[in-house]
């Protein structure tokens, strides 16, 4: 099975990214053909400072390696090291209707928030379709916010295949219900751009401060606490197995629980969970040459697969005069 997913280096990576995508990708590497990459072309639609883009791209690579992504067991690269993806983007654009892109929630949300409606932002899903189709991916592990993008990629693949003959594999979004939308400290979807994220490699002081600011309701101490739409319960649950979740539920339902105590405990849980990874992250940050080598090697390895699909698409549309 070919499993593929990407992440934007548009900010520091957070618990939403980790549990919905990064951790699942790392688990998949053991028994699948894994394709994992950092989408810096996509990030250009929102990041305008070149130094920030460079820094966040390298940071995301070090984060992935520290968390356990094994470059020998997977394909791991930076999107811009494989510019072939743009040729495919163009070929896919030919069969992509304006209407399909006009229905994109992400485009509508971003422009509603004041991001300029550029062609790049509008065409974002076509580049993402090319990312997926260029590697022949079967399965795309993502959070719920990316579901429509993967459906657009399927739609484009289907139209291309029916216009020019069987060329692309049909990809499928792989979303885990429990963690499809992980809330941030304010209860809204956790996002790099909403200021509500808990970053996985935050320093101790900022992490504590973030966890202590998780929004809670004003249920009196002596009453049972709700677990539905309660970001404290939901975020804590990410770190627990089924038995642990059941126990946490019982604690919330038992009168006397103090939210402040749970927050202090949760800070300890998160800090400890990421400690071994933080130490590895520190080592990678001292050996950037290794990280650059890994990424270069990853792009070369992926290029072999990508060229196969680009050549097939070129030939099927008739560019091979
Ligand atoms: P990005 O960088 O916004 O997010 C990376 C991954 O993290 C997931 N995610 C969440 N999941 C649950 N709850 C949350 N609060 C949360 N926040 C983020 C996202 O769903 C995503 O899976 N367009 C993509 C990047 C991309 C891509 C691709 C993905 C470009 N090409 C090809 C897959 C395949 C994006 O912006 O993800």
Core attributes:
55% helix; two-stranded parallel sheet; 321 residues; 2 domains; Rossmann fold; binds tryptophanyl-5'AMP; 5 strands; Tyrosyl-Transfer RNA Synthetase; 3-stranded parallel sheet
How would you describe the overall organization of this protein?
By secondary structure, the chain is mostly helical. The protein has two domains: 2-181 and 288-317, Rossmann fold (3-Layer(aba) Sandwich); 204-282, Tyrosyl-Transfer RNA Synthetase (Orthogonal Bundle). The protein has helices at 15-28, 40-43, 50-67, 84-93, 98-102, 105-112, 119-133, 147-164, 204-212, 231-237, 242-253, 259-285, 288-317, and strands at 2-7, 33-38, 74-78, 139-141, 172-174. The strands form two sheets. A three-stranded parallel beta sheet has the order 1-2-3. Helix 4 (84-93) crosses helix 7. It is globular and about 75 Å long. The model has no long low-confidence stretch (mean pLDDT 97). Tryptophanyl-5'AMP (TYM) binds at residues 4-8, 16-17, 20-21, 39, 42, 128, 131-132, 140, 142-143, 145-146, 149, 181-182, 189-191.
